[in-house]
Amino acid sequence: MSLLRPIAVLLAVASVSSVAMAQYAAPAPTVPSPTGEVPGLARIGVDEHLDAQLPLDLRFRDEQGRTVQLGDFFDGEHPVLLNFAYYTCPTLCSFVLDGMAASVKEVEWTAGDEYQIVTISIDPRDTPERALAKRQEMLAKYGRPAAAHGWHFLVGDEESIQAATRAAGFRYFYNASLEQYAHPAIVMAMTPQGHFARYLYGIQYPANDVRISLLEASEGHSLSATDRIILFCYHYDPGTHEYSLVAVNLMKLGGALTMLAFGTFFAVLFWRERKRRRVTRMGEHHAPVGH
Question: Which are the contacts of 211, defined by CB distance < 8 A and separation ≥ 6?
């Protein structure tokens, strides 16, 4: 029976299916299109800064109006999902946040327990009151009580916002004629120390991708055997911006499990045979001697 669990895990890994781009989402499409049709489009995008450090001494205010530092949300043990938005956004930000809420709701880990979520407004005019309203809306959609201590909505001044977005490679601008911000749709998985580990694009994020990005970002902290198997079998494809099964690793794992199964089978047979012989010898030793 002990073999059933690893074999079931393998089957589950093999059966998991593995991003739609938003209006201004990066990266650019493979077929070039004229940017002149959309004013400022070239100013929007993402320059991935993998392994770069987010400045953890940057100061913001949370939804309660308290002054906080980004370092308050990185404890050295748990990964963090980070995204940029603004709380009066009429379209894209709501799609991104709704997509996040829907994805993390399907992930086994819970924000506030195994990881944190930090949303930073890119609009220096946003207020803690707006942040609180957006937070309450998202927590209601998430539906997990622990997230009350796990999803944080921050506001800040222009200097702090620029420093954070620059560190992330998040390029955006304010369209004065529309009175809106034009920006990418993206979520970033951060290590417990505040390094950028993975960028997820679009307005919908497959729960499997979110989970694996958190596993990667966790840097091995408190990972179960199942989590380690998933990391071994999946690889992030920069071309498709999705996680996919690695056939070679999957075959290696299958071979290892097969050898383990055979080894266990023959070990049990050997143990039973030795036990049978021992019982037989004991029976012969204690058999009565006839006269």
Answer: 107, 108, 109, 230
How many C-beta atoms lie closer than 10 Å to residue 232's C-beta?
Answer: 14
| DSSP helix, strand, coil percent of the chain (3-state; round to 5) | 45, 20, 35
pTM: 0.67
DSSP collapsed to 3 states, 86-113:
CCCCCCHHHHHHHHHHHHHHHCCCCECC
User: Which residue has 């938003």 as its token pair?
Assistant: 22
Are the C-beta atoms of 63 and 132 separated by less than 8 Å? yes
Distance CA 276, CA 282 (A): 10
User: Bigger pLDDT: 60 or 31?
Assistant: 60
For helices 207-217 and 92-106, give the axis angle rounded to 10 degrees. Answer: 80
Query: Which are the contacts of 238, defined by CB distance < 8 A and separation ≥ 6?
Result: none
Which residue do the tokens 């990066």 mark? Answer: 26
Residue 170 makes CB contacts below 8 A (sequence gap 6+) with 46, 84, 183, 184, 186
Quick check: 135 and 88 in contact, CB under 8 A?
Answer: no
Could you tell me what percent of the chain has a pLDDT over 70? 61
The string of pLDDT tens digits covering residues 240-276 is: 666 555 544 434 434 444 554 544 554 555 566 666 6
For residue 261, the model assigns a pLDDT of 52
Domains and CATH numbers, the chain: 19-245 (3.40.30.10)
The candidate with the shortest Cα–Cα distance to 182, out of 47, 44, 87, 83, is: 44
